[in-house]
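thread: overnight batch results

M.L. [08:02]
morning all. the overnight job finished for the chain we discussed friday. pasting input first so we're all looking at the same thing
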Amino acid sequence: MNSFILINADQFTLDTLAEAGIDYYNWDENSIIVTESQERLSQALGLKGLNAAVSEWDGFYLVDLNEQICCTTTAMPATDSMQGKYANTQLGQARENYIKLARTRMDQWLAQTLQAFEKTNAKLLSLAGAFFKKAQLAQAKTIKTAGADGSKLLVQQYQALMAIDKVESVRFSAGRILIFTDVLTATAPNVKGTRELGRFLITVDTTGTLDAPITCHNLTRRIKAWRSGMHAPQVFADGKLCPAEILESIFQLTAEQDLPTAIELLLQHLQVCQNDAIGEQLKAWPLVL
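M.L. [08:03]
and the structure it wrote out:
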């Protein structure tokens, strides 16, 4: 199944996709990625098909939502709140109020339960981002002054990445290195059997400006485990990795331009879960038969 990069996705678009049960994840400030059939995506957004353009990445198509043609007979009108197909009925109002209450209570519970965890996560990502930026800028200056040697280093990095087991393809773009994997599986000491995670897109920030130098997005499935929309037991819905001791090594290797070793270590981290509460969440992923 192909993936679509939806450009100019506003809050109404996000609400509409959520209402239709279609998962998405952020690509940049105003774009999201959706892995769904073209027909279902068009119907959910109320469009007369999708005017999609081929992107520079295999299996990814660009869709500018500002250039699409709406189905005026079936498109849902934009309202202050997304009320769904029962918007004009008492049942719809009751349903909406119940959902709001449930979400409020759930948000309060999550805030109380995960407050300490979020502080640790934010601190780790902030320190990692600052370290990565400084080291990356230093390495960039070295490569720039090296001239032809810098280009040779990139070729060596590409060849080494492609030699890693489970890496299917590697793409270089402005400010990013995109690494596509084959289907990953995982095990955990406290979970029965081998579980299928899916195919991943690993994005490496080469600018040193983002708070997360490496993000991982599951292109096959996202699971509601100990938090909703998880890409793996150790990967949040936004693609950021859960705090772990191994992250320090991964970030340091990435900043030092030893990307192949960093990616190999990252894949091992994804596929071998620890004997802890996070590793136990692997049971939510499908069993490999």
